[in-house]
Amino acid sequence: MRIGYGLRGAAGEIAAEAARARELGFDALSTSEVANDPFLPLAVAAGSAGEMRLETHIAVAFARSPMVTANAAHYLHLLSGGRAVLGLGTQIKPHITRRFDMPWSSRPAAQMRDYLGALHAIWADWNDGVQLAFRSEHYTHALMADMFRPEPSPSAPEVHLAAVGPVMTRLAGELADGLIPHAFSTPEWFSEVTLPALHEGLERSGRERADVVVHCPGFVVVTGEEGAGEQETLAVRRQIAFYGSTPAYADVLRRAGRGELHDRLHALSIGSDPDRWARMGDLVDDELLGAFAVIGPLGQVAEELGRRYGDTIDQVHVVPPEGTTREALAGFRDRLSPRRSGPETPGAPSGA
């Protein structure tokens, strides 16, 4: 079982935060593309990271050309001595077209298939001398001269793919080195939708379950021994409400028998009420909070993750509170590791 640490500090604190995570015994550092670029903090952290893997969790694929992404991930892989992991996600249409001002395909899974193919073709040119000549429905990369080739790497970064629905999850099982289930996921969705789709993808490519790293779904919030405060809980409720208002994720609520809540959340989200995001959080009751989130001290979180997911996950990302010790994190890992069924720590498959 790998334990990842999600970088949260300000720009000037990244190196120190990475050093603290290393001292606590974490296996990986991760970033997410929310307010900041996901690659730059990892580059800053690399010098303090020791042997930790450096993972984008996730970078928005369709906001960038595959060439741009390939170059950023390749450089991070070189910088870290081969420990970069490229976690990719599609985002949703409004963000791609209105925030990033990039085109949106009507078939995002097909576009992602082409994206992954383009990445590996680019890396094969740089690392193995295979002349770049990639052409697909969505991407064409057919020009590469010596002056534009970066220093080769002995390996390419692992590629982990984020997914909510079964189509993208099957693609992860077929082509990726890892699956990153969305935080907006209940145990039922994970067991009844995600895992069957993952295994279908693995069967398509003739691979085994141990060939893919499966990250923990849901919201995981580690608190002090006193448990979650009101503000911590409220923040998670609002995150759940935000995702629950998104049409692309509505099926998760419908499967939980809460389709009407999506309709209410979506109506509020597109309204003009300045307090709508706070009001939306108020609609997430305790039952729904408990379905999507595991919140509590390290020991309690380990127990609940084991109950929910057993040996079906290989990696979980947490941000422990101040005062957490290396021994406490080791105990957390020990309580989860016997349930592991995937790749060993620290190695993992590198081909996709």
Describe how the helices and strands are arranged.
Blueprint lengths: L1 E5 L7 H11 L3 E4 L7 H7 L7 E4 L2 E2 L5 H14 L4 E6 L3 H7 L8 H21 L5 E2 L4 E2 L16 E6 L2 H10 L2 E4 L5 H19 L7 E2 L4 E4 L7 H15 L5 H6 L3 H11 L6 H7 L3 H7 E4 L1 H12 L5 E4 L7 H11 L16
Parallel strand pairs: 1-2, 1-13, 2-3, 3-5, 4-5, 5-8, 8-9, 9-10, 11-12
Antiparallel strand pairs: 6-7
Helix pairs in contact: 1-2, 3-5, 5-6, 6-7, 8-11, 10-11, 13-14
Summarize the structure.
The protein is of the alpha/beta class.
CATH topology of the largest domain: TIM Barrel
Percent of sequence in beta strands: 5-15%
The tally of beta strands, per DSSP, is 13
Number of helices: 14
CATH superfamily of the largest domain: Luciferase-like domain
Instruction: List segments where confidence is low: pLDDT < 50 over at least 5 consecutive residues.
Output: 339-352
**Outline type:** globular
Structural class determined from secondary elements = alpha/beta
Question: Could you characterize what this model shows?
Answer:
It is globular, with a radius of gyration of 20 Å. With 352 residues, it is of the alpha/beta class. Helices cover 45% and strands 14% of the residues. It has two domains: 273 residues, Luciferase-like domain (TIM Barrel, Alpha-Beta Barrel); 65 residues, no CATH class. The protein contains 14 helices and 13 strands. The strands form three sheets. Strands 1, 2, 3, 4, 5, 8, 9, 10 and 13 form a nine-stranded parallel sheet that branches. Strands 6-7 form a two-stranded antiparallel ribbon. Helix 3 links the parallel strand 4 and strand 5.
